[in-house]
Design goal:
Layout lengths: L2 H4 L7 H14 L2 H13 L3 H5 L6 E6 L5 E9 L8 E5 L2 H13 L23 H14 L12 H13 L5 H8 L4 H7 L24
Helix pairs in contact: 2-6, 3-5, 3-7, 8-9
């Protein structure tokens, strides 16, 4: 992990995340709003998320009796040598914003394709720097961070992991595997987890109390 990323913490207050999303919905560019939604819904690595193409979006039929269509991104895997790609399934909110984005940009190659005149002949995605600037300015405008606070697009990935563990049924072990990290300790530090979060391989009891230390 880059040293600059190690200083970036997840947003631990759900209301802060909602305020951030609301100001993006009101004033943010559509592609930045979609990046926010996908980043928070999937926890994808920023570099992978930024480079996604519409052809990376796949569908599959699931279920024997009650058939339903699942939608996912096929993205590179860093740890499964025999499976160079893995599936990142999308929840309804992500599917909705992607559907709207595609309707508004039917000819784009990249999901977050730039409109820069320098990219007219050679399509490419928005830069991480541009995405970071837009997201940070929105976070500052709604008062959840100050201009001096450490911030990066990695905030979305860390917030995804933190809230799935602290408020959901994911253990640190499950999140470690999902984030493709090497140890429980690295994952706990990466997500700045509170004391008492179960590390094991089975989902925790929702009623179990966790010491937040905050």
């Amino acid at each position: 992990m880059k040293s600059s990323e190690s200083n970036v913490k997840p947003l631990k207050n759900v209301m802060d995340l909602r305020r951030w999303e609301k100001i993006l919905e009101e004033n943010g560019p559509e592609k930045i709003r979609v990046y926010f939604r996908l980043g928070l819904d999937t926890g994808m690595q920023p570099a992978i998320l930024q480079q996604l193409k519409w052809t990376d979006l796949k569908t599959e039929e699931q279920g024997e009796q009650l058939r339903q269509t699942a939608i996912y991104f096929e993205v590179p895997s860093r740890v499964e040598w025999h499976k160079p790609f893995r599936k990142i399934y999308l929840p309804p909110d992500s599917i909705k914003v992607l559907d709207e984005l595609r309707r508004h940009n039917p000819n784009d190659i990249y999901i977050f394709q730039t409109r820069s005149r320098h990219a007219l002949k050679n399509p490419r995605p928005l830069t991480i720097q541009r995405i970071t600037l837009e997201l940070k300015q929105a976070a500052i405008n709604c008062g959840i961070i100050s201009p001096a606070d450490p911030f990066g697009v990695i905030t979305l990935r860390k917030s995804f992991g933190y809230h799935h563990i602290v408020h959901g049924n994911w253990t640190v072990h499950e999140m470690m595997r999902y984030l493709e990290q090497r140890s429980l300790k690295i994952t706990s530090q990466y997500l700045d987890l509170p004391v008492g979060v179960p590390l094991g391989c089975t989902p925790r009891n929702r009623g179990q109390k966790i010491k937040t230390g905050n």
